[in-house]
Amino acid sequence: MGKIYYLRGKKGNMLATVEVGAVTNVYDVAKTFLTFEPMTHKKLQKLCYYAYSWYLTLYGKKLFNNRIEAWVHGPVCPDLYHEYKHYGWQEIEMVDELPKSIAENPDVYEFIKEVFDSYGHLNGDELEYLTHMEEPWKEARGELGDLEPCTEKIKDEVIIRFYRKVLEDEQKD
To answer: Range of 95's domain?
Structure first.
């Protein structure tokens, strides 16, 4: 565990398949992930974080405008947390239909699917562990202990810097 997973895309380069300028909201991104399988709230949070981070890194534009914070269990979008917190540790059921904003933009759907293909085989705890090894979450938490609460925003500049380095390192291999 601890390997950084990154997006390659079916054609080897996701840059060729996503239209720059596509923006949705975290709820629609989450519902799209839930069309693939039922999952825990923790896993859903981390998948939305990775979708946001990779989209921002690759295209220089936010996939959604909702805030992401460095909570104890990894990156969390508070808006999404409040939407699904009643599930606790139970799985959230699958969704049958794509949200309209995603259905109308197949490039964004394909991007979200690639994120799921890259990270979806991991469970919530494994995704939590992975995010805890990465600079965006660690920098936002600063010197806080493992179990200390935090509502610090994970900064876009740090996300871009970190994931660009991941891409550069992969290209060297």
So the answer is: 21-172
